TrEMBL record:
Top-level taxonomy: Bacteria, Pseudomonadati, Pseudomonadota, Alphaproteobacteria, Acetobacterales
Sorted UniProt keywords: Cytoplasm, DNA-binding, Phosphoprotein, Transcription, Transcription regulation, Two-component regulatory system
Residue stretches making up the OmpR/PhoB-type domain: 164-263
Protein name per Swiss-Prot or TrEMBL: Transcriptional regulatory protein
InterPro entries: CheY-like_superfamily, OmpR/PhoB-type_DNA-bd, Sig_transdc_resp-reg_receiver, WalR-like, WH-like_DNA-bd_sf
The UniProt record lists the keyword Transcription regulation: yes
Any one cellular-component term (Gene Ontology): protein-DNA complex
Gene3D superfamilies in UniProt: 3.40.50.2300, 6.10.250.690, Winged helix-like DNA-binding domain superfamily/Winged helix DNA-binding domain
Amino acid sequence: MTLCFNRPTRQVPDARARWPQSADEAEEILMEPTKQTIVLVDDDRNILTSVQMTLEAEGFTVHTYTDGESALHGLMSRAADLAVLDIKMPRMDGMELLQRLRARSQLPVIFLSSKEVDQLMGLRLGADDYITKPFSQRLLLERIRALLRRNELTRNEAVGANPAGNMVRGNLSLDETRHQCLWHGRDIQLTVTEFLLVKALATRPGLVKSRDQLIDAAYGENIYVDDRTIDSHIKRVRKKFRQVDEDFNQIETLYGIGYRYKEE
């Protein structure tokens, strides 16, 4: 069975719900954006209920699950735009669920955790962001919106890219239209955050990017992210490249300063 992670950005509404009275109205209906769907997974039903109410009040469609196994089955049958995962859950914890997701999809994921070690492990496994428990629902809402904007921005930039949609730097090729990264012609599966980090570094080879600059590039401005989050993402990016090329060393660390993509 195929996992249905990313829903289309537009779809034709049910004609029974609203029948257009003119050609102009029909066009308006076709252009209406599809509601974005959030998958929320936590074994604490109080958290599920309160967060679901907050997100639905902001116009999101929300699917909730109390364990990772049910969430995985749900994602097999219903598309989603983003997932918020707790770590400690019965039947399948958030770590295993994330690993299974990342084996099939680059669906944007935010982790909920109270332990620093779990936060770092989640980032290493491919989470895009994390929220520390206990958390402010306003903060979670802003993180969700920021991650969705980044994902949408990547798609929109791809539409306006050159006909090939590619950025080529030596053996590196980034195809924004397909969200595809190639190294020596071999596919590297990157999350949204990882893709944006590689793009930010490769855009100006030889130029040092501070962690703050990389945070802005990957998360947007005015979003607080710990420096160690960037370090974890870079470590995972390097690991992915070295799975296809053990000699990969294009991303250099300048201790106390930041990172840069080597000139070729």
